Amino acid sequence: MSWRRRLLAVAACLPVLMGVTACDGLNGLQGTGDKGYITTDGVVRTVDAAERGDAISYQGEDLDGSPLAIEDYRGTPVVVSVWGSWCTPCRKEAPWVAGAAEALGDGVQFVGINLRDSSTAQASAFARGAGLDFPSLYEPDGEALLAFPGVLGLRSIPSFVVLDREGRVAASIVGQLPSQQTLVDLAQGVVDEAANGAGDG
Q1: Distance CA 126, CA 129 (A)
Q2: Distance (Å, rounded) from C-alpha 30 to C-alpha 33?
Q3: Which of 57, 69, 148, 173 is deepest in the core (most CB within 10 A)?
Q4: What is the pTM assigned to this prediction?
């Protein structure tokens, strides 16, 4: 079974919210209540290479105050993980995220976007304890999410975006991660696509 079919099978098992449009889900406005995070299983979406938009670019500072830019990783598929230490679903899925990063190895670069933590110390302590060893942008106001128009909104936490080696959005999971394997399959599909030259624009 192809990776796209596996992901579609996973997506078919996710809860369907009647009356919620794709744009509502992608903007992160549904299922957030007053807690500030998405509480339902994530909506899995893939984008064919021919339909991908412009490359994503964003520069900021990591949790140590050093410069970090998403475009620094051009040439390698990137998984962007939106998280916060205060976010209950993020805390629950953190072992899956760490496990996916380990399983995918050097073929994929993970980059975090840390939202609304009160300090870098708080965010760093959580990341260390959860085994999230990849660099993360510190974004207390969530400005980095605006770099993903039509994919993420200011309340899209937790969420994941897979960028192809050209930096274009190839896939996303907006909402709580359904499983570690879902993220591995999604990212591995983009790795395989790159290896086969299918993602070239």
Answers
A1: 5
A2: 8
A3: 173
A4: 0.81
Q: How are beta strands 43-46 and 169-174 bridged, if at all? A: antiparallel
| Contact of 162 with 170, CB cutoff 8 Å | yes
User: pLDDT tens digit string along 92-105?
Assistant: 999 999 999 999 99
Query: What confidence tens digit (pLDDT) does each residue in 43-71 have?
Result: 999 999 999 999 999 999 999 999 999 99
Residue with tokens 């760490």: 98
Strand 78-83 with 159-163, pairing: antiparallel
Characterize the bridge pairing of strands 67-69 and 43-46. Answer: unpaired
Tokens of residue 77, six digits: 């598929």
End-to-end CA distance of the chain: 25
Q: Distance between CA 32 and CA 39 in Å, rounded?
A: 6
Is-contact 23 149, C-beta < 8 A?
Answer: no
CA distance 113 to 63: 10
Q: Return phi, psi of residue 74, to 5°.
A: -55, 140
Residue with tokens 């030259």: 197
**Residues constituting the chain:** 201
User: What count of Cα atoms within 13 Å lies in the side-chain half-sphere of residue 44?
Assistant: 24
Q: Tell me the pairing of strands 109-115 and 78-83.
A: parallel
Surface-to-core class of residue 18, CB atoms within 10 Å of its CB (0-12 exposed, 13-18 middle, 19+ buried): exposed
Which position has the token pair 């709580």? 176
Backbone angles phi, psi at 28, to 5 degrees: 70, 25
